[in-house]
Amino acid sequence: MKNNSFFYFLTLNLLKEKRRYAGIVIISSLLIFLLSSVLFISSSIKQTLNYTLKAQPDFIVQNIKGGKVAPINSNMVNKILNIYGVEKVTKRVYGRYFFDDKYSTLIVGVDFLDEQSNKNLETLINSTDLKQFLSKEQMIIGQGVKNYLKTHYYNLEYNFLTPDGQMKNIKIFKTLSSKSAIISNDETIMPLKSAQKVLGLKENKITDIALNVPNDSEWQTVKAKLQSLNFNIRVISKKDMQKAYESLFNYKGGLFLVLFLIVIATFSLLLYLRYTLAASLERKEIAILRAVGWSIKDVLKLKFLENIFLVIFAFILGSSLAYIFVFVLNAPLLKNIFLGGSNLTNFAKFTPVVDYGVLSTIFIIFTVAFLSSVLIPVWKIAVTEPKEAL
Amino acid sequence: MHIKIALFKKGKTVIKEFLIYTIFIIILFTAVNLHYFFSKNSINRDSLTVAKVTKITEPSLSVGIFENRFLYLDKSFDNNVYPDMMSINKTGFVYEK
């Protein structure tokens, strides 16, 4: 390759006007960086949620009053258990507890004496600590809650104010890892009875009921049977949840894709204008090459290789920096667009997910727009007589 | 011919610079791919463990997910120009379908 004079000329050309090309590379990288960052965040959240959906019960039964979720009687569990094909019927108690008029935590009550919950809890906290955890009324909190409580000097315990005006003191046992913060950042996990007290629920009342139906083909029948239990029952299936997550994050990712297309169109227009109107230097250069005997094909080949190098350089630089920004630095600022920023500070860490299909689509869209806005004016100059062009 | 010689003379130093940029890009690309290869799926497992205990898989959005955005108020004050427009930071709007 060292003996190839064409390649020497190509690299010389690129490095001769380093500043000009650097400008193009920086702007292009910035565009790629922004779009890739958004798509990385979006696909990472979607992948994590799809993965955690494994733990999502097949159906959730809620009691609806006035369009809002109302507490449901716990004896409904027995009615559901009588339906053929249903298993793992679990009482769920959860709800928001507001520290003040802005910041809130999601209180989740778990029946730790339940065999299934007990096993999972063992994995969550060290099994050696399990006895110690169950000996007192204690809670496990997410990173966001810990951060809020710490700033308010509650390092070891917190006094919850129950709706009936009493104080409920619960000790902090453990903080959940920031690796799980994407779903646990604002969660406070405590025993079921404590959660009922904090949320103001009577002993026989729960928030909703979760259940599994192992046989997929029975889903429709079971759903119909559940709905027939009471007229004000709402049944949410796992599929509904999946669709909801997909729509939510696709919607936000899509918004950025539209913005990207607008920006790329503007950028291409600027490049086109630069090559057609402003750059008389470019015009001269092409005319000289033509005058010394270069064919139109050679000129186009030179410009094509020059610009494809710039595109590849900008693309790798932009997407790599986006990867580092999202998966190493955890996307400061941009994270809030997806996870919100009006409640507790989110300490979520994103699981590295690279969607090669989406990345190659961006590359193709970007390359076609970039190269056509450069090569068309170059071709126009190359076909004119060198005398005229000069 | 003259141009070619001149290019060769200058070329050797210029090529070095070009190679430096290329090597930088290759290193960056390789580093990112290695990081991806070794760290994918590492964080998911922790989320799954928590979800198994709570049976709740909703994302921890920094907003009121199941409740109104602000306590005691049934209105979003996000957008002053279109106060009736639904906030996109709520998962609730998906269920409106």
Task: Give structural notes.
The complex is a heterodimer of chains A (390) and B (97). In chain A, helix 2 (18-52) packs antiparallel against helix 10, helix 2 packs across helix 12 and helix 12 (296-328) runs antiparallel to helix 14. The mean pLDDT of chain A is 83. The two termini of chain A are 32 Å apart. Chain A is an alpha+beta fold and 390 residues long. Chain A contains 15 helices and 12 strands. Chain A has 2 domains: 5-51 and 244-389, no CATH class; 59-212, no CATH class. By secondary structure, chain B is mainly alpha-helical. Chain B has 2 helices and no strands. Chain B has helices at 2-39, 44-54. Chain B is elongated, with a radius of gyration of 28 Å. The model of chain B is unreliable at 1-8, 65-78 and 92-97 (pLDDT under 50). At the A-B interface, helix 1, helix 2, strand 4, strand 5 and helix 4 of A face helix 1 and helix 2 of B.
